[in-house]
Design a protein that fits this description.
This protein has 301 residues and is mostly helical. It has 2 domains: 161 residues, UbiA prenyltransferase (Tetracycline Repressor, domain 2), CATH 1.10.357; 123 residues, Four Helix Bundle (Hemerythrin (Met), subunit A) (Up-down Bundle). The chain is built from 12 helices and no strands. α3 runs parallel beside α6. The two termini are 31 Å apart.
Length: 301
């Protein structure tokens, strides 16, 4: 679920040559990591995943489902729903430029949807239900009349749930019963992911402002949005640390706390220059955040 970017640079982007490569480009592989990682964390938290070949196969299937298939599907839907805006802001993109036809878009969506349903059923009916919910949220986020992406609070919330919460729950349910600690931690990291989505919006502030998309950076300005993002991520992590302390799982509380403290100087740099440091923070601070997710998943076992 990616928002329109700023107006393109004079240098034309490299264009995929084959129809398959163009469909793959629409699926935006760079976005697949977050839901795939969340599924892995949920599987770890379930205490049902093992190092056996069948178990590893289910993990691989779930990662493929959460990342390339479902996340890729959401990206294709978003790009198609953004085609008119992109025709003004980024006419070189695949759909507005005519390099990908509506027919190819519909075929890509259909293939991914069928794969998503089939793969999720292999992982269980509960995973299939979460998959269906995620597909509905992808449409709600991008398509009229709701088009939740027009409001940063609601849109980022749907993305955070789709990228972190639902995959985590799916990973857990693919290997065992959902526990209260796992549900709580999944919800808290979904909250934290709302802040990450805000940081991702800095790169498209100009295009979003012109397009009338009220992201949090557009509404609050770069500095205000940076503070909102940082406070949201920190509040979520502090609650996770508190929960592990309440459960007296001190080693994991300490690991997550150490990862949290390591983010603080990076967050200070982000607040000083939100637009200039957003990419830097995603490569550093966000990485520490997601390692904390894995530590939390191990602590729940």
């Amino acid at each position: 679920m990616q928002k329109p970017l700023a107006p393109p640079s004079p240098i034309a982007p490299k264009v995929p040559t084959s129809p398959l490569a163009r469909s793959l480009a629409l699926m935006k592989p760079v976005t697949w990591f977050a839901p795939a990682w969340a599924f892995l964390c949920g599987a770890v938290a379930s205490n049902g995943a093992t190092w056996t070949l069948p178990s590893l196969g289910r993990i691989a299937l779930g990662i493929l489902l959460a990342g390339p298939i479902l996340c890729g599907l959401s990206q294709v839907i978003n790009d198609y729903c953004d085609r008119e805006v992109d025709a003004l802001n980024e006419p070189n993109r695949l759909i507005p430029s005519g390099l990908v036809s509506p027919l190819q878009v519909f075929i890509t969506i259909g293939v991914l949807a069928v794969l998503a349903i089939g793969m999720s059923l292999v992982l269980g009916t509960k995973v299939a239900l979460l998959t269906a919910i995620g597909m509905v949220l992808a449409v709600v986020y991008s398509a009229h009349p709701i088009r939740a992406k027009r409001n940063g609070w609601l849109g980022n919330g749907l993305v955070a749930i789709s990228y972190e919460g639902l995959p985590w729950l799916a990973g857990n349910l693919a290997f065992g019963h959902l526990t209260v600690p796992s549900l709580i931690v999944a919800a808290l990291y979904s909250l934290g992911a709302h802040g990450i989505m805000t940081i991702n919006d800095f790169k498209s502030m100009d295009g979003d402002r012109v397009s009338g998309i009220k992201t949090i950076p557009v509404m609050l300005g770069a500095w205000g949005a940076a503070w909102v993002a940082v406070l949201t991520m920190n509040m979520a992590q502090l609650f996770v640390i508190m929960m592990f302390a309440v459960w007296q799982r001190w080693i994991f509380a300490g690991i997550i706390a150490a990862l949290f403290v390591a983010q603080l100087p990076l967050q200070r740099k982000l607040i000083q220059d939100p637009r200039g440091r957003a990419v830097f923070y995603n490569a550093s601070g966000t990485t520490l955040f997601v390692w904390g997710m894995l530590a939390a998943a191990l602590g729940i076992r």
